[in-house]
Amino acid sequence: MAASSATPHTTGCVYNAPMPQDMLGNTVGLDANGALARNLKHLAESRQFTLGPMPVQDFLDEFLPESGHGGRGGMLSSEAAFSAVPTRGESSADIYRPLIAALNKMSSKQSRCPGFVFEDVASRSAHPRRLGHMKPHICCFVQEHAEEALRADYTSRVELGFAEFFLQVQPDPRHDFYHDPAPTASPVARAAHQLGQDYDPEDDVSLHVLEGGKALGQHIAYVQEVFTRQFRIFFFTVSLAGPCARFFRWDRSGCIVSESFDIHERPDLLCEFLWRFSQASVISRGHDTTVDRALPEHEVLFRTLVEEETSLQLGLIGEALARAIAQHYEPGKVMIVHVPAEGETLRHRRFLISRPVMSAFSLAGRGTRGYWAVDLTCRAVVFLKDTWRSRSLEELEGDTLRYLNDADVRNVPFLVAHGDVLAATHATCRTEYQGTKTDEYTSQVWVCRVGDKAARVTRRRHYRLVLGPVGYDLRFFQGADELLHATYDVFIAMVDALRKDSRVHRDISAGNVILARERGSEPNSRRKGYLIDWETSSHVDDAGLALKPGRAGTWEFMSIKMLSDVHGSERQTIEDDMESLLYVVLYCALLWLPHNVSDRELSETYTRFFEFSTVHRGVAVGGDAKASNAYNRRYTRDIVFDCSAMKAWLDTIMDYCSPRRGAEKGKWTPDHVDAFWSHFLNTQALDRHGRVAHRLERNQPQETVSSDSDSDSDDSDETSTEAHQSTGGSVEHSPTTVHPRDPSSVRERPPPQIPTNPGSDARQPAAAGRAAKRTTPPAAGADSASRPKRTRVIQPKTSRRQPPDPSTLRRSQRIQEQQSRSKAEEPVPAPRPSGRQAKTVASGTRLGQFSRTARGRGRGRGAASRK
């Protein structure tokens, strides 16, 4: 067979997956104005997760072992393979253009990389020298994909959706950011050696280090984009500084970089990499084969059911509905995802997905992506969370949800399916899971330091969680009425979890509350609030203190106590979660309800109250404005809302939380707050609509605590509560998730954009706590004749939760008894605030009661109403 006709393995691969988009149809996370900041952030973070330099032959043998089938008759000789590539050039093109010719060289029976082709991608850009528009210099494609990628418009970036690996080139050997130790260095000397070079403005040599650092930051940005555009377990890249090459292997734990080698002196090493890559299976090339292309009939089913669900949740028709559907669906891009089914047999449940509503834009970390999905078992719309969890987690998020469901905790998602992702859909045993490998090499003798601290690499495993219902982010509430009713629903969930499962959430945030309208409801009825993302929750001891110490949650909404925790020893309580919920309401009210605060004053208040942080002994601390407001209401006393009842609620809850008068002392308890809140909702008139979008006016980025590599800051995905990486001038606001193990990392973030009202032309819905982005209107769906029959959601038949630990039951009982004894008297509802007194119908229920809906959903029957 001629070398040019060799066909690489591509069965089971999905390429060029949809990415989330913003309100204008732009791909989220790729704003050109923020490219430099993103690249510098990538470079700084890489110091924490890069291991190297690994001996080149070891790299090849470990990560691309010889396939063992077939001979090497189709392999071109490596002798003088790259002799035409110059040692240095005036530009990168002087290096990579002759390199492309060498890579693509073939005869009738031999080639460098059979079945693959190398293309100049860097020149395929409308602005090839401008950050944010640049593309890798050379991409390796399967032949058929190269043709599709090269047909795309220069403004698109689909090349990274099809790339098998890429090569990035610097024209000068001095532009290599890494500096290998001497070959004769002792193990002690290697351990102390700084692999990554530091920039010194007083040193002329550092100008080259600066160029190398900028190039590496851009290199990492390309890798991160590949992980977002493809379904990847890992990814290979090659960098060259002049003729000096390095191999890279990237996964969600970090990166392993090889020693440098000269392609003039050792052309055999690069040729060996190319040959082994061409013989590798799709799994060995890093693809996730548990995602498949859907059939045409599956795409019709997906679009039809997503249209029904979107219409139910938003009450839209026509073009407005089409725009909302585009948040979840891209025509021709529907995939089948396999999620492990619980039980002894090696079965999978299949779900249809298309465009994610969120995707993490950091490389090392959980890499969380969230989708509206269609369950092929029962034809219902659910939410699918795809993430890379830490192997150190004591309890999977799906297990936590099952415990909460079995305990009849109200207003939390119901579990559909979950599990660690098998290595392949045909895996022969449960022990073959998709996991990271970078973490396996941290103790190797060749590992050098890359930064001031030793690398911190987290062991991760691929995990999927499917839950319901789907809904829209709390930040898209319609008015004060929906805001206070939905957050009261969340309050019920918090207290239920404490009393029935001895658990505190620890990450109460605006992004962790979704609004969902139940099937059978009136089109414009009030939506229900659900508390999601229980991954960082913790059981409590007899005193109500979380068993897990330290921070976990979202900086903007943390309690004063947790923000001032310098030593990481504080343990959260239900009172901390209640305080966070107060800040969630205040945050939403300030940004999206009409009031008398100017945009300038609002911006200053927002920055000081929600974002400010400083570093004390290497640890980020904050909460000064919150503490000041607790003492004298400095930031809230003069606010006047158009809805007077909104201010009355805030004033009362703040007085309960931080009493200034004796009458409110001792009322910061679940029972007292519930007594006031439920009575308030039953007696006060709250605006159903009237939502506005205030503008935050800030010229300079603000320093905030960011998530570390364990969070999806996005994540953040980075996850947690983050929706998207905030970059550039006009971006969506993404509160900052703080991971308990590294609360002190600081980053800069530009001012947030205030999302407008869902249903408008600038709609920006979100699903299951994640902010979704508008796309262009999709193609028309199936007609009514082809509309599939909708069936009720059926929970998977799994074993019921094992009998709870007796100590957990005793703690729950003691907590309730202690709270009962601590009440000096039966809570008395606060006096009615001034203003309109028209009675409204309340959706909340007292904590001691169960609504019919909650009782059914908690037992795994909550979807019965979704016919």
UniProtKB/TrEMBL annotation:
Residues 854-867 have a biased composition (Basic residues). Residues 762-782 have a biased composition (Low complexity). Residues 695-867 are annotated as: Disordered. SUPFAM superfamilies: Protein kinase-like (PK-like). Residues 739-750 have a biased composition (Basic and acidic residues). Gene3D superfamilies: Transferase(Phosphotransferase) domain 1. Residues 216-587 form the Fungal-type protein kinase domain. It comes from the Eukaryota. Residues 709-720 have a biased composition (Acidic residues). Residues 722-737, 840-852 have a biased composition (Polar residues). This is Fungal-type protein kinase domain-containing protein. It comes from Lentinus brumalis. The lineage of its organism: Eukaryota, Fungi, Dikarya, Basidiomycota, Agaricomycotina.
